[in-house]
Amino acid sequence: MAIKGRAETMEANRVKLISAARKAFADKGFAAASMDDLTASVGLTRGALYHNFGDKTGLLAAVVAQIDGEMAGRAKEMAQSAGDDWARLLSEGVAYIQMALDPEVQRIVLLDGPAFLGDPSRWPSQNACLDATRSAVAEMVSKGILKPVDVEAAARLLNGAALNAALWVAASEDPVVTLPKAIDAFQLLVSGLLARRP
User: Fold this and answer.
1) What is the pLDDT of residue 9?
2) 50 phi-psi bin (left φ>0, alpha ψ -120 to 50, beta other)
3) Residue 192 gets which letter from DSSP?
4) For residue range 39-66, what is the model confidence (pLDDT) as tens digits?
């Protein structure tokens, strides 16, 4: 019973730290966020942070994974009303790019994430997106909706195009002006995969 209680406490501490870090990283940015302030804000010590995440960068990775996972979920949800398989896939990519205007997403996932965690295509959350895209592409190729293209190559290029468009929007001097350019180019690029126009 004591082991179960300890595991619940550790999980509660993880949740508290991720929540506090998410707010601090969104407000101040990763580099400026103080770990002492962050841990004190939830009544914990640096020891709890190190025990759960290894270091500040490990905590950032957990926050990025949480937000990136939420982004994928939101994109999928936004695309549900898009109609057929192709329209949903295209809408998911566009929705992901549009989220680059969300201040929290912009700062934590698209600016600080790559700066401090490295190549986003190697993040576990991006791998989950790639798996979903791979499945969708395989199904559309088998139905003849997409040209007979290598599924792995197409899935990676689709995901990469959406991710890089979002990164570009977030890093641009005027994201609102950049967004429609990124979306137009993304739609033109990926439409080349269609076997026939709907």
Assistant:
1) 73
2) alpha
3) T
4) 889 998 888 888 889 999 999 999 999 9
DSSP at 34: -
Cβ 21 vs Cβ 63: under 8 Å: yes
Contacts of 133 (CB under 8 A, 6+ apart): 89, 155, 158, 159
pLDDT value, residue 2 = 57
Percent composition of the chain: helix, strand, coil (DSSP 3-state, to 5): 80, 0, 20
SS3 of residue 146 by DSSP = strand
Ramachandran bin of 174, using left for φ above 0, alpha for ψ from -120 to 50, beta for the remaining angles: beta
What distance in Å separates the CA atoms of residue 143 and residue 33, rounded to the nearest whole number? 50
The two three-digit tokens of residue 195, written as one number: 């076997």
